[in-house]
Structure formats: C-alpha cells, structure tokens
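User: Please fill in residues for this 486-position structure.
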C-alpha cells in the first residue's frame, strides 16, 4: 500500500539527472570546449600567474546545496582551465610531462562512464590491461610469463619493484615477520643521478634511505660500473647483503642512459635484482633509431615507466613490468576472505590485479593507453619520440652557435641543460626562467649541475616544433641581454 511513496523516495535519492536531454546538451558543450582548448593551444600562454581573486574562490566552504552544472562548468572554464601548469602546450618544456592527446581524453571519458574497479573480478577491462602487459612484455623482450600493472606513476612502480625484490631476498615469511626479523642488512645501488623516489622507496620499504648507495657518474652522467662493483664488494666485506641495483633510462637532470648491458652482466655475476627506472626513457624502445641504446634492458628483472610521459597518454598512467610472475605475486597476494576466488561467476578470473600491487581499488587506467597504442600505433609513437630527440639536438646546435650561451651537459636524449653567460650566472639564469614563465612564451625549469644553475629544457610534447624551440631561445637571449645590460 505504501510501495509507491517508497519508490518515489528511492528515486529522489538517485544522482542521475531529472532531464537526460539537458545533461546530454551540456555534456556536448563541455566536450566541445575541451576539444577547442586542445585545437587552439598555441593561442594561449603556456602558463600565467593566478590572480588572488581566483585563488580566493577556492577558499569557499563546503557547498550544502546543489549548483547548476552550467554554472560549475563556467567556473571551470574561467578559473581552472586557464591556470593549469600548461603541459599540454607545445611551449611547456620544464619537466618531463607528456602533452596528452584528444584520443586519450576521449578514452578517459569512456573509462569514467564505465566506472570499473580493476582490483579484481572477472571482467573484460582486466583483459584490456593484460593485453597491454603482454604488448609491453613483447616490446622489452620479456618472457611470456612476465607480469605487469598500471599504477599512478613511476614512483609507485619503482616502489613495487623494490618490494618484489625485497620479498625475493628475504622470503615470503618476511611479509608477516617484518624486515626487522631478518639478520640480513639489505643494500641497494643507484647512480647519484637517479630519481629521489628510489631513496623514498627504500624508506617506505623499511630498509632505510641510508641503505641506498649513490654511485658516482662518469662524464656522460652514466653510473660508473667500476665504482658500483667496488661498493658492492665493500658492502659484502662489511657484512651487508647487496640485493637491488637500479639502472636509469633517462636521468631526471640530463636524460642520461646507464650502461644496461654492463649492469645486466654485473647483476648476473653478483646475483642481484636488476631493475630499470625508465620513467620516460624506457619508451625510447618504440623508436628503431633509439632502441639500440637500450640494449641490455631486456635482461632486467623489472622495468618501471610512465605512459603519460613519452607515450602521450593523459595522466596518470604509470606501469611496472616484472619478469617473473610468481615472484611478483609472492610480494602482494592476500588470503583475505572478502577476496575469495571462484571458478565461475563474477568472482572468477584469478589471479587478480590486486595480487600484483597494494591497491584493491583501481581505475581503468589501461583503457587510455590501449586506445593510444591502437589509435596511433607503436611506429607513430616511436617517430614522435625520435622527433623530440631531434628537436633537442637542434636546440643543442643553436646553443653552440650562440656565444652568449653555454651548454652544461651532453645531450643524450631529449633534455638540454645550458645557461646564459653572465657575471653572476646563477642569479641571472634564475631570473631568466621566471621571466620566461611569466611571459607565457615557454616554461623551462632549472636544475643544478655541479656548481652551476642550468636552464633545463625537457622536450616531451608531441606538439612541439622547431618554431617553439626558436621562440624559447630567442626569449632567453632577449631576457638575458637585459640581465647583463650596463
């Protein structure tokens, strides 16, 4: 008798729109606005300062009552979209951020609409992720039994690799008994040019950042293998247990590539886990021109990289590839009752992605990578990667032709470090970079190489052209001339 009011009350609790036609119309406007944004990026500044009045709007209290979707969208267009960091823009060269694509954006929309949780269960979205895992295994020459997982980024991927290696070194019982129960004092090794997330991973894994040995580099910023060998021998003699070596494909400062063949041979000889932090550089494997420089990486026990950098997939889309599926699962499998597996029904499909990492709730990150690989193909993506390296060489040649400029590091891939010559170069170059940012012309970053502050240009965006390099350099020369003017 009271069923009708109850049904009405339940309907009122739904968050679906009352008017699907109106929502559809608004959705088309929102999609068109984002496509317009991507199509006309060059007409915008790369970055611009955020007015205080705009910042103040994001200090408002929690809204208690609903607001119309068109008004929220308008605020996004006026107060959010113009003030992002700008990495979609071809003039963004500050950090190793990919530019994304319209295809990837559309795939992300589909994934959001599906709202799949890829922690587990028997569902095709997991098959999509597994297909990308197989593609990457083939790309890097890993065996059929290799495993992989989409994660937030390479910081998490490196952490997962370290945990897998730690469990392999200490045994599965260490997951219950803890690191402190072992008599082994584990040590890891990476070059002094390795990303800071490696030391953070050692900290989070309970091994301590002090157990990471930072190995000096040679003149090409590659890890010195002789010094690495000496450090391992010294640690063994001191009672430590070396277990983990990190080679870097594209160091964070200058984009250097470690000697992967040498590292692979050393790790085989010393029976150490060989991991590659390939955050952006690993995907150079897609380019026939660059792939030979990664020889030896196929011998790694694990590789971490980001699709959202050179792969141009929208954020976030990190990835970890592990040679041995059983070792990977040993580090993360859980016997929890609520994760019970069945041979049939939605609880089938074991093993699940949650058996390979710490996340049970996982978005459908694989879809945008899958779309990108299918829509453009590996060959086209490899050409884009090679082109960014060609642009870096072009910038290098222009710098060498300018007496006002000084190249500060060899150009290995797509990162160029240089400075404007001045009486007080650090101060002058810091101001030049700020001026570039605030002009909206280009966004490089800075880094320190030895005693010198460098202007660091990382060319990652598929939209960047020779004209963008020329605009950057012309602006550096213009702003630099003001710094040294009498």
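Assistant: Residues filled in for all 486 positions:
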């Amino acid at each position: 008798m009271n069923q009708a009011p109850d049904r009405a009350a339940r309907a009122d609790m739904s968050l679906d729109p009352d008017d699907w036609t109106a929502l559809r119309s608004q959705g088309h406007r929102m999609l068109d606005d984002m496509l317009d944004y991507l199509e006309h990026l060059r007409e915008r500044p790369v970055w611009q300062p955020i007015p205080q009045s705009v910042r103040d709007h994001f200090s408002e209290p929690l809204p208690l009552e609903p607001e119309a979707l068109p008004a929220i969208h308008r605020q996004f267009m006026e107060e959010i979209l113009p003030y992002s960091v700008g990495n979609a823009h071809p003039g963004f060269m500050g950090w190793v951020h990919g530019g994304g694509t319209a295809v990837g954006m559309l795939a992300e929309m589909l994934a959001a609409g599906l709202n799949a949780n890829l922690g587990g269960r028997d569902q095709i979205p997991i098959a999509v992720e597994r297909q990308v895992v197989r593609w990457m295994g083939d790309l890097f020459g890993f065996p059929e039994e290799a495993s992989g997982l989409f994660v937030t980024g390479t910081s998490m991927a490196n952490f997962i690799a370290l945990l897998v290696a730690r469990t392999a070194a200490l045994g599965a019982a260490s997951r219950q008994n803890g690191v402190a129960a072992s008599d082994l004092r584990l040590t890891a090794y990476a070059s002094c040019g390795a990303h800071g997330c490696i030391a953070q991973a050692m900290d989070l894994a309970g091994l301590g950042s002090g157990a990471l040995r930072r190995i000096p580099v040679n003149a090409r910023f590659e890890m010195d293998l002789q010094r690495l060998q000496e450090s391992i021998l010294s640690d063994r003699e001191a009672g430590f247990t070396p277990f983990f070596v990190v080679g870097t494909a594209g160091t964070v400062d200058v984009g250097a590539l470690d000697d992967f063949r040498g590292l692979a041979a050393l790790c085989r000889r010393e029976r150490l886990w060989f991991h590659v932090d390939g955050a952006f550089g690993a995907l150079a494997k897609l380019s026939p021109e660059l792939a030979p420089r990664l020889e030896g990486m196929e011998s790694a026990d694990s590789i971490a990289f980001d699709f959202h950098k050179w792969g141009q997939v929208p954020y976030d889309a990190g990835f970890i590839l592990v040679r041995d599926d059983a070792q990977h699962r040993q580090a993360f499998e859980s016997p929890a009752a609520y994760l019970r597996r069945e041979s049939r029904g939605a609880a089938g499909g074991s093993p699940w992605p949650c058996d390979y990492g710490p996340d049970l709730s996982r978005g459908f990150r694989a879809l945008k990578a899958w779309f990108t690989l299918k829509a453009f193909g590996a060959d086209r993506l490899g050409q884009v990667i090679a082109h960014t390296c060609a642009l870096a060489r072009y910038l290098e040649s222009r710098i060498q032709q300018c007496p006002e400029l000084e190249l500060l590091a060899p150009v290995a891939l797509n990162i160029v470090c240089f400075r404007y010559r001045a009486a007080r170069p650090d101060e002058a170059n810091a101001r030049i970079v700020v001026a570039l940012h605030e002009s909206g012309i280009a966004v490089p970053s800075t880094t320190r190489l030895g005693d010198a502050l460098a202007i660091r240009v990382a060319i990652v965006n598929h939209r960047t052209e020779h004209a963008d390099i020329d605009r950057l350099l012309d602006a550096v020369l213009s702003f630099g001339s003001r710094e040294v003017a009498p």
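For context: The first strand starts at residue 147 and ends at 151.
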